[in-house]
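Give me structure tokens for this 142-residue protein.
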Amino acid sequence: MSQELPNGIKTMLRSFNQFIPYLNRIINDYDALKGEYWKPPTNAEACEMVPRAFRDEWLQANKALARWLVNALNQNFLTRFTCTYSYGSSKINNEADMDDGLSLAFALVTLSSPNSSDTETPLTDRFTTVLNWQPLEIRVNS
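Here you go.
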């Protein structure tokens, strides 16, 4: 079942109306085999990936979205998003620029996911820690 951005967020983002489909796609387009959310174009990729007809407006709105997110997020999140982090099962390196709203949103979703490759703890270690679970030892009688 797909998720939608909450109506309150959509209302706040009216000035970023063209980004609602991008944000919805980040949230909903998850490749479980690769452990990756869909990655939107960055400001640097806009020349190649955003149609020329609205590229300037897109860049201005993306920078405005970045300003809004920078004001909304605390410094710890911003530092984590703008430093190199890895995501996906192949541990792709990425970092967001402070003036790139969609990249900051992508980092927020990706690094908030329980599937983030920044999580290095093996599943058995999590069970051991959380449930005080011990794997069964199989002994063969000789």
